[in-house]
Write a structure and sequence with these properties.
Distance between the termini: 61 Å
Number of strands: 0
Largest sheet: none
Radius of gyration: 21 Å
Structural class: mainly alpha
Strand content: under 5%
Order of helices and strands: HHHHH
Length: 119
């Protein structure tokens, strides 16, 4: 039994760096569950809408990642800039969505608290 424990410990120590390296190779994902991206899943988008939104979502994702990596910003500036990025995304997404989808999106934003004006 003691030998089995040693084998398991040795195997664990051998494989741990491999799993850590694999995790570092994967792109960084959103920490809070996807935000707008997750909300779009509930809008029953058509394939055409998904295709049109994909570059807009990718642009927003890149901007948010760059913002998170910018260590020179104060928390207030970071929050303000995140709001600007979100607003720009919504301005580009609105023409792609139907009235019903827009209404549903606004309802979802209201349920989660939405952003307060002036923030």
């Amino acid at each position: 039994m003691y030998q089995n424990l040693i084998r398991i410990a040795t195997l664990s120590l051998t494989l741990a760096p491999l799993f850590a390296q694999d995790a570092q190779d994967k792109p960084r994902e959103h920490r809070r569950g996807g935000g707008i991206h997750r909300g779009l899943d509930h809008l029953d988008l058509t394939n055409d809408q998904k295709q049109k939104l994909q570059p807009v979502l990718e642009e927003q994702r890149k901007q948010m990642m760059a913002l998170r990596d910018d260590t020179n910003l104060t928390p207030q500036d970071r929050r303000r800039r995140m709001g600007e990025i979100r607003d720009a995304f919504l301005a580009k997404a609105r023409p792609i969505l139907t009235e019903e989808q827009l209404k549903k999106m606004e309802e979802m934003r209201g349920k989660r608290g939405g952003r307060t004006p002036g923030r």
